[in-house]
Design a protein that fits this description.
With 198 residues, the chain is mostly helical. It is 78% helix and 0% strand.
């Protein structure tokens, strides 16, 4: 599993100790996955209620907890293909909740359709970033691990939302997220075309 920059240097400092603390408890990796999704749901609700700081902090907490399930599975020796599959599916729902919540909050601050357009572009780009990695054959998957193609990973997107929410920059964060994700997708498509067309 590829760790983005935020996961590697920030999130893992918290998620690994949490996983070790849960190692000898009845908690399962799939339960942790559900918890991460539930916290994203709390972030969504806080955005809707107009509490962006709380929503931003919940978003980052969800991102940190998202790293616990895999570590816990390895520590308990019960890692499974289904666990990875379930985690990936739950992450997409969590992404949708966070970006939709951010969009609604930004729309309440900004007149016009721009927040909804930016929100759609940010959500589509977020899903496409994940999809491009999933669709690349395992032999070639590392071609997205360096340079511009490696940006816009989930951990980076969630930190961007957190910073934007805490600082009160709703529409600016949506626009940055939309631009970043879709630029990275374009770079990945070009990279894949160059390497896989033969």
């Amino acid at each position: 599993m590829y760790d983005g920059l935020v996961s590697r240097y920030i999130n893992r400092r918290f998620s690994r100790p949490i996983a070790r603390a849960l190692q000898h408890t009845p908690a399962t990796p799939n339960q942790v996955t559900v918890l991460s999704l539930a916290i994203a749901g709390i972030a969504f609700a806080l955005f809707l209620l107009g509490y962006p700081v709380g929503a931003g902090l919940a978003t980052q907490l969800s991102s940190i907890i998202d790293g616990v399930d895999g570590d816990l599975a390895r520590l308990k020796g019960n890692a499974s293909p289904f666990g990875s599959f379930f985690d990936a599916v739950a992450d997409r729902y969590a992404d949708g909740l966070v970006v939709l919540g951010l969009t609604v909050w930004a729309a309440n601050q900004t007149v016009g359709a721009l927040p909804w357009i930016a929100g759609f572009a940010a959500l589509g780009g977020s899903f496409a970033v994940t999809y491009t990695r999933a669709m690349v054959h395992a032999v070639h998957r590392t071609m997205f691990d360096n340079g511009l193609a490696s940006l816009a990973t989930r951990d980076i997107r969630m930190l961007l939302v957190t910073v934007g929410a805490v600082t009160g920059l709703g529409i600016q964060t949506l626009l940055a997220l939309a631009l970043l994700t879709n630029i990275v997708v374009a770079v990945r498509v070009i990279t894949a075309w160059r390497m896989l067309r033969s």
